[in-house]
Amino acid sequence: MKKIIAYCGLICSECPVYIATQTGNEELKEQLARDYSTDTCKFEKNDMTCTGCHSINGVNEKMCVDCPMRKCGMEKKVSHCAECNDYPCQYIEDYVPIESDNRKVLEELAKQSKESDCR
Question: Mind telling me which InterPro entries this protein's record contains (predicted)?
Fold first, then answer.
């Protein structure tokens, strides 16, 4: 599967919800709904559908449709937040902790982008 990166640095192609959607694995969706549910936020199997945040159709209403990074990235027409001239912006600071895997992905992408700009 091609490596797909969300605006926030999440590697979609490694995400179990994305994989379950792409493979049609309904049992995995049921398990993920149980695993991701909390006392304050309950997920159902149907909530575990994701076609990636770059997708126009099929974006999960409960998880991603209102994501401010997704909205901003789409408006700025970037592939991920590290491509943005404003990176790291307040959205990144608020939602993607510096020690998170997603932030490490974005930092590496930003570094690669700067290196290619110097050539």
Answer: DUF3795
